[in-house]
Specification:
7-stranded antiparallel sheet; about 55% strand; mainly beta; about 140 residues
Length: about 140
């Protein structure tokens, strides 16, 4: 199950990433959920997850965005969560981005992501710096 909340995403509550006009100055969203995975022959994997995110329009074309999220498994169970190449019990991610609207259908974004894990035999290096180009046609 999952509970979601959004603020300032327009009259329908759904605001697309592309074809987004910078009408509201700020958008925010959050979610919390729990899951059960009773697959055989592996041990049961129950846990929870959450995220909070926001976007702020600096100008009509320039925006900043952030997201903080976490996935946790109950009872010290481990699994390859998120992008972790090794089994871990908890996976956290912080993303900070700077975006530019080239036009109403095309955005470019620079993003720094800090990833952290707990409960594994080792802590892999998962941080990244990325440039993305998104367009809709």
């Amino acid at each position: 199950w999952e509970v979601d909340a959004r603020w300032n995403y327009g009259p329908t509550g759904i605001r697309p990433t592309i074809i987004s006009e910078p009408s509201p100055g700020f958008q925010a969203a959050a979610a919390y959920g729990q899951f059960t995975d009773d697959a055989s022959p592996v041990p049961d994997r129950d846990g929870d997850y959450w995220y909070v995110e926001g976007l702020y329009n600096l100008t009509d074309r320039l925006f900043v965005a952030s997201r903080l999220s976490q996935i946790s498994l109950d009872n010290d169970v481990t699994a390859a969560l998120g992008n972790s190449p090794i089994a871990v019990n908890e996976y956290r991610r912080l993303s900070l981005g700077l975006g530019y609207r080239l036009g109403p259908l095309t955005h470019v974004k620079l993003e720094w992501t800090r990833n952290a894990t707990d409960g594994g035999a080792d802590e892999p290096e998962l941080d990244q710096l990325a440039v993305g180009l998104a367009t809709k046609f």
